Amino acid sequence: MEIPAQSCLCSRHFPQDCYANAILKDDALPSLELGLTDPTSNAEVDGKPGTQLSPPQIARPIIRRPRTRMLSDEEIQKMQPIKYVRYLKSVNWDEISKLPTEAKIVWEVAMEELKEGNDKIKHLQAHVRHLKTTVRKLEAVLKTRTKRAAVAAIAARHRKSLG
């Protein structure tokens, strides 16, 4: 595998098998080359007694957000495409968010379902208000009829007593 020109700086510190296409693999380990390949520099280093080469102290970078793991082509091909997204009830976001197109589809479907749910809620709330109004009207009619029936019963008893 050939290392692309854009990564020539890293090619001094990482072996070729640490690259996947033009991207550095997640498990890549740097190996620092000190330029000790020619024999004259080896003799100079070996000739100095008590001098040992130690790796320089390197400050660890501050990682502000977790590094996202890219899927390999094989993993992408192994994953089955999501069919019948509209019928998904429980979505495993870890699997969905790996592919942006599928994540977008699931997001759009979820937003559409939320909108439909809100529309249903508004419709049902309006229906409840209408039914409550109807109940109030019927209670008023029932109250009026019971009063009339009571008045009619009193009037009938009064007529019987008079007559």
How far apart the termini lie comes to 120 Å
Mean pLDDT: 71
The value of Rg in angstroms is 41 Å
What strand order characterises the main sheet? 1-2
Give the helix/strand class. Answer: mainly alpha
Question: Tell me, what's the shape?
Answer: rod-shaped
The percentage helix is 40-55%
* Largest beta-sheet details: 2 strands, antiparallel
Number of helices: 5
Number of strands: 2
Series of H and E elements: HEEHHHH
Q: Approximately how much beta-strand content do the residues carry?
A: under 5%
Contiguous runs where pLDDT drops below 50 for at least 5 residues:
none
Organism: Harpegnathos saltator (Jerdon's jumping ant)
Protein name: THAP-type domain-containing protein
Region (Disordered): 35-56
How does this structure look, described?
The structure is a single chain. The chain has a two-stranded antiparallel sheet with strand order 1-2. It is built from 5 helices and 2 strands. The chain has helices at 8-11, 39-47, 73-78, 93-96, 100-162, and strands at 19-20, 23-24. It starts with 7 loop residues before the first helix and ends with a helix. The chain is rod-shaped. With 163 residues, the chain is an all-alpha fold. Residues 35-56 are annotated as: Disordered. It comes from Harpegnathos saltator. This is THAP-type domain-containing protein.
